[in-house]
Request: fold
Amino acid sequence: MGRIIDSGLKELSATLHRMGELAHRAVLTALLECLEGGEAYREVCEMADTLVAMADNVEEKTFELIARFQPVASDLRTIKSYMKIAYDFTRFGRYALDISFLNKQIGGLKNCEEWISSHVKSMGGKTLDMIKLSIESLKSHNPQLAERIAGKEKEVDKMYFEFLDKLIKNSTTSKCIVSSVLIVRYLERIADHATYICESIIYIATGQKKVLR
Amino acid sequence: MASKFEIQNLNAWFGLKHVLKNINMKIEEKAVTAIIGPSGCGKTTFIRCLNRMHETTPGARVSGRVIFNGVDIYGNGVDPVMVRRKIGMVFQKPNPFPMMSIYDNVAVGLKLNGVKDRKILDAAVRRSLELANLWDEVKDDLNKPGVSLSGGQQQRLCIARALAVEPEVLLMDEPCSALDPIATAKIEALIRKLAENYTVIIVTHNIQQAARVSDYTAFFYLGELVEYGLTKQIFENPKHELTERYLTGEFG
Reply:
């Protein structure tokens, strides 16, 4: 027979899994829009709003679980971390929205030099991989899997600074500079939040607060 | 959700002492309702009024209506024994009949009601022990005395005994206060399971237990119902200052 708290924890993790999938879709949609053109702002906006509403639900539920079930040890770590992870997922949605907003406001990267869009594309791919990895770690609560994000985070950071260097040395239009700099900045932030999620998973599984950045 | 009980202007006395004052509440079907409040607030008297146990105490008196399944159990011509068959009770201390086996402790209610067919009795004993999450632990020892079990097992035996006569409601008066934390956790999980099919009303001194097991919580103070609502709401955001002070441990 399960414990009384288990059904609440299950409900929380199911919500977080759905948030993860939605956050991934939001970032992917915004990136595709910027790279290939199109108009997805409204769609991305809806996804970002949904993520915020879901995070509110997670917060409500964690509050209830703390008030009613006096969680301790791994239960307490899980509940605390799930609240943080829900916030991380809302940040994915928010950055996706920022990317989409750039496309709407100053235009995407479609007409920029090829090296710019290809750099953003490969950095975007890496960042999406990191989101996937953070979701998989969350689903499995596997700290070894979560640790694998550290290497990816360093790669994204490196790509970010390399890109800024290259932009400074190349002469290109200011529109492309502004757009691409902001996009890679958002991607770098997304990568950080994916890393925070993996740090939370390690905390849930082991109780250790490990920094993977 | 449908109401199992509708309590209207319920008052109770012990002699001249007015212990329950004008209680009005509806109790939901197939849910757990917890009754909390400091000692002497009327919690136990309240649930004893719900199956006409209060009046069995000499000098005790009740007024008002307790409408159960649409019928006032204090109405003319209502047989209190029939009421108690539908509304079973589990007490603070596990109280299996000391001279009876595990089997007979569960079967006794049916036997008293004239059931003699061994097959029917066997099936009822097994079903009740399974419902009480005790079957696997005692199935090879059904002829051992009920009192040979551990405290937690004895309490589950008492729950099985109450379930054997197929009640619709279980009243529980501090069912875990004599038990250790592990036995308590088992009873609490059992209460949640039972709420899928039964209406459970539990009196508890343990505020956290009320928070864990119940869907609704009623806070009683000095014989009055101070606040009643969803457990989530009562514990996260009580509306009444007295409730807040009781839950946060300012008095009790």
Chain B has a mean pLDDT of 95.
